[in-house]
Amino acid sequence: MLGIGEASNEPDEEKEEADTEIIKALMTMLKEAVEELDIDVADETVAKLDGYILPDEISKDLDTLKAAVADLDSDNVSEIVDKILENLQ
Fold first, then answer.
1. How far apart, in whole angstroms, are the C-alpha atoms of residue 69 and residue 88?
2. CA gap 39, 49 in Å, rounded
């Protein structure tokens, strides 16, 4: 299992492109996990996100999101997740 903030070693060629519904579900799970201080679920969710090819508008925020998750900064995670979800509309 990857630690929070660690990048997946999987080459992009082997990653599956995530559709909008998968991204929305993972973002919601991540936000709830951090709010509940459930580090295991947060860690697993970040690892799942790393397993997908994400759209550029999400990829650019992913490192910041990972740092906020690692710090268990629920306010910042919430803000970033809401921004990502808004961009997916």
1. 20
2. 15
